[in-house]
Design brief:
Layout lengths: L25 H10 L1 E4 L3 E7 L6 E5 L8 H18 L7 E7 L3 H19 L16
Parallel strand pairs: 3-4
Antiparallel strand pairs: 1-2, 2-4
Length: 139
């Protein structure tokens, strides 16, 4: 019988999408829209404003005008939250992000949404691995 001791691996940061990393209040969304800058992709538009807290927070907008059915709005939000959850460790700048879903996100799927999120975050200069100059506009 072997004895299993404590793991020598370093503790891993949780990749969950806790309440502390979400934008929940209307005033927080309004602050990002008013004071922030944006960059547009094919599947989403990312608005970002600097934040004073620890780490980045994110909110998602999937409007009824864009997505008529509730199931489509929920899927769009789920795809964006999953991309943020998986790539949050890349963010080097503390900021509040509001991500507005576009209709095309439903056809794109999870992998395309995640890769576009990474591309847009890099273009905003928020990625720790390879920041790029912010040029604005469509990518």
């Amino acid at each position: 019988m072997s004895v299993i001791g404590p793991s020598s691996a370093a503790p891993r940061e949780s990749a969950s999408f806790r309440r502390t990393v979400r934008l929940l209040l209307n005033r927080d969304f309004q602050r990002v829209f008013e004071a922030g800058r944006s960059i547009a992709g094919k599947n989403m538009v990312i608005w970002v404003a600097t934040a004073g807290g620890d780490g980045s927070r994110m909110g998602v907008v999937a409007s009824k005008r864009t997505f008529r059915r509730a199931v489509d709005r929920n899927r769009a939000k789920r795809l964006i939250r999953e991309a943020f959850r998986k790539e949050r460790h890349r963010l080097s700048v503390n900021g509040d992000l509001v991500i507005v879903a576009r209709r095309r996100i439903l056809e794109a799927g999870g992998a395309a949404t995640q890769s576009e999120f990474v591309k847009l975050v890099r273009a905003l200069g928020m990625a720790g691995d390879k920041p790029a100059a912010y040029g604005g506009g469509q990518i």
